[in-house]
Amino acid sequence: MTDLPGLKDGRLQDLAPLRRGPLAKALKALNGEGEETRLIGGAVRDLALGERALDFDLATTATPDEVIRRGRKAGFKVALTGVAHGTVTLIVNGRPIEVTTLREDVETDGRHAKVAFGRDFSADARRRDFTINALSLTADGHVHDSLGGLDDLASGRVRFIGDADARIREDYLRILRFFRFSARFGSGAVDREGLGAAIRGRAGMARLSRERLRAECLKLIVAPHAAAVARTMGESGLLEPLFGGMGYPGRLGRVIAIEEAHGAEQDALLRLAALAVVIAEDADRLHERLRLANAEWRRLAAAASAVTSLHGIETPPDVRGLRELLFAARRRAARDALLLTQAESRASADDAAFAEADRFLADAPEPELPVGGADLAARGVPAGPRVGEILSAFRDLWVEAGFPTEPEAVNRLLKRATDGDACAGR
Predict the structure, then answer these.
(1) Is residue 221 located within the same domain as residue 285?
(2) What are 146-201's pLDDT values in tens digits?
(3) Which of 198, 201, 283, 188 is nearest to 245 (CA)?
(4) Please, are residues 1 and 145 in contact by the beta-carbon 8 Å criterion?
(5) Residue 1 falls within a domain, yes or no?
(6) What's the whole-model pTM score?
(7) Domain housing 287
(8) What is the distance between the alpha carbons of residues 53 and 42, in angstroms, rounded to a whole number?
(9) Same domain, 170 and 51
(10) Domain assignment present for 231
């Protein structure tokens, strides 16, 4: 059995999660009296890698009714989240822990499965998606691995359990999960068999909910090997059915390189913009395709619009141009657009001029138009279309003058706009 950072001789090195806290309490309540309960899936994988496990899922020989009885006896709040399929959620010290009775799929329609309960942990493992997610951990810290998941995890290989085509037909979301896990845990090229099955099954992605597509996509593009995996997806024709349009994995790779050069945190939305948004209409399509939140959609659309004002440049604008960008797009969209423009240019990821321009956009005050409708009313301009015309003319004059704030300069520009000489042709 392969040793990993969190394991030694097939046993978990840090037993703290099994000795105290919500997981330990749940295992104590559910184990014994002829029943066995184990931690399963991604939590075991992460603990084996020496990482923190964020979510705890348990598999048990106990029936759902017995899980409910034991949970209530232990004083836990019990939520009947999926009891028809054998899943009960125990709330232990405020933390939800899903407990699922061991089961085997009897029938599946590509998204939902009919199951039969059982008592065989190995059979339950065989119905899961990838070998690295089929691990289980007993309360004494022993890792059970009947499918070679630890070896795959150590070698950076994400491999379907059994027949990859069959696993995908059971749940087409596994196509995206295959690429997401490859981007997080993989090393080198993605598994050839899995890739072939994903290509053959790609039409099934149309059956998936938009919310689940969004969740998987945003997780994938912040994974360590996102750029390489996105490139493989693009070359295999798998980005277009996901986004309903073109994908640009090369630009994603350059944005990731710039983030790393700046020491910036991973930004899923900016990476999504790099991968799938060139014009504002692309943002509109993704809004519908992935059911993005309105704030997410507005950010993508604003960045795309701002990029058009910088199209084709190889060096960043001067200070005046940056102020104009900051005024027109506001800070978030201006910075997004600058980084996307750098990614499209021939500038290096650590280009000093672009880095300085980004610092300016991050720190400079956003120019605010110094006059409004009330100022025009004080000058005797009646309410109506004329107010908008004057304000538009003043805005153009003010930007052209370099955003002056001195009262004399502002009044002079406002007089020009009000007198009408700047409104010619409007």
Answers:
(1) no
(2) 999 999 999 999 999 999 999 999 999 999 999 999 999 999 999 999 999 999 99
(3) 283
(4) yes
(5) no
(6) 0.88
(7) 246-367
(8) 8
(9) no
(10) yes
